[in-house]
Design brief:
binds D-malate, Metallo-beta-lactamase, Chain A, about 300 residues, binds zinc ion, binds manganese (II) ion, alpha/beta
C-alpha cells in the first residue's frame, strides 16, 4: 500500500495564523530550520490511482492541489478519493468536508456512530452537507471487525477504540465514549505488511499497545513534546493530556513506549502541534528523536508498505 502524508500538523497548522510563538515566528521568518505544515490528513492507496482519504482537514483544497495523483482527470468532474474515513469529529479532521460539497454523488464517509452523532448534533456538518452532495454513511465499529474500504483494494482495515478526547461541542467532552476517537490498523494483503495509524492517542491501553507491537510501521500522535508546553508558552491553558494527547517526553510518554517496540518497526510522529520544539530540525528535542530512531512526518512524505 501507499500512504501519502497530506497534512502533518495538528489543529491550527504550522505556522498557526494568529501565533507568534518562537516556532511559528521562526518558520514564518525562516530563522529556524523547519517546514511549513498543513493540518492532519493522510491518503491510502493500493495503486496510486484510487485513494481512501483519512480526515478532511480545513486545508484540503491546498492538499489536493499539492498531491496531483488525487486528481486522475478521467472526466469533467472527477476525483481519486473514493472514500473518506474520519478518525474523530474534531474541527481539524472534518471541516474540509464542506469543501467537497460539489461532489457529484453522496460523499462516502466511514466513521463510528459516536462521530456521526457529533457531526449531526454538536456540529451539524452532516446535516449541512445534506443540502449539497449528501452523505453515504458507513459505520465503523470497534469490535475487531475487519473491513474493506473502496479506494484501497489490497488493504484491510480494523478500527480500534482509543482513549483521547471528544471535541468541545460534543456531549462526550471530557467523558469519552467508545468510538469518539479511533486508531486504524491497516494490513496489506499483497505485501503482508501493516501500519497502525493514530493521530490522537491519550492513553496507552493494552489493546492499542498490542496493535502497535504487531505493526511494521506506527504513524502515531506527535502533538506535543511536554504536557504543559502550551501553558509554558502562554499559548493556552490546556495540557496535552487534557486534550487527549500523550506527550512525547517524560515518564510514561510516547518516547518510552516507542523505545519498547522492535528496532525493525518504523516509528513516525504525526499531528504535530505548532508549539512542539521537534518542528525545528536543529533542536535538541529533534536530535533526541533521531537518537531513538523516531521520524517526524512532513507534508508530501510518501510511504510504500
Ligand atoms: C485535537 O487534536 O485535540 C483537536 O484537533 C484540537 C483542535 O481543536 O484544534
Ligand atoms: Mn487534532
Ligand atoms: Zn505557534
Amino acid at each position: 500500500m501507499f500512504i501519502r502524508i497530506l497534512g502533518s500538523a495538528a489543529g491550527g497548522g504550522f505556522p498557526q495564523w494568529n501565533c507568534n510563538c518562537p516556532m511559528c515566528t521562526g518558520v514564518r521568518t525562516g530563522s529556524i530550520n523547519a517546514r511549513v505544515r498543513t493540518q492532519s490528513s493522510i491518503a491510502v492507496s493500493h495503486d496510486r490511482c484510487d485513494w481512501v482519504l483519512f480526515n478532511a482537514s480545513p486545508d484540503i483544497l491546498t492538499q489536493i492541489q499539492q498531491c496531483g495523483v488525487l486528481q486522475p482527470a478521467r472526466q469533467l468532474r472527477d476525483t481519486g478519493i473514493q472514500s473518506i474515513v474520519l478518525m474523530d469529529a474534531q474541527i481539524d479532521h472534518t471541516t474540509g468536508l464542506l469543501m467537497l460539497r460539489e461532489h457529484r454523488q453522496a460523499l462516502s464517509i466511514w466513521c463510528t456512530a459516536a462521530v456521526r452523532e457529533d457531526l449531526s448534533e454538536g456540529n451539524p456538518l452532516f446535516r449541512v452537507l445534506d443540502h449539497y452532495s449528501g452523505i453515504d454513511w458507513h459505520e465503523l465499529t470497534t469490535d475487531g471487525n475487519v473491513c474493506q474500504i473502496p479506494g484501497a483494494a489490497s488493504v484491510t482495515f480494523t478500527a480500534l477504540s482509543l482513549t483521547s478526547n471528544a471535541p468541545p461541542y460534543s456531549p462526550h467532552r471530557d467523558k469519552p465514549v467508545d468510538g469518539d476517537t479511533i486508531g486504524m490498523m491497516m494490513s496489506d494483503t499483497v505485501s503482508g505488511r501493516s501500519v497502525f495509524y493514530a493521530p490522537g492517542l491519550g492513553e496507552m491501553e493494552t489493546h492499542v499497545w498490542e496493535a502497535m507491537q504487531s505493526a511494521d510501521v506506527v504513524l502515531i500522535d506527535g502533538t506535543m513534546w511536554t504536557d504543559d508546553e502550551m501553558i509554558q508558552r502562554g499559548a493556552s491553558n490546556k495540557t496535552a493530556r487534557s486534550m487527549g494527547h500523550l506527550p512525547q517526553s517524560g515518564s510514561g510518554g510516547m518516547l518510552e513506549w516507542l523505545d519498547k517496540l522492535p528496532e525493525s518497526t518504523r516509528k513516525i510522529l504525526i499531528h504535530i502541534n505548532n508549539t512542539n520544539p521537534i518542528l525545528d530540525e536543529d533542536s535538541e528535542e529533534r536530535s533526541i528523536l533521531d537518537d531513538h530512531g523516531v521520524e517526524v512526518a512532513h507534508d508530501g512524505l510518501e510511504l510504500e508498505i
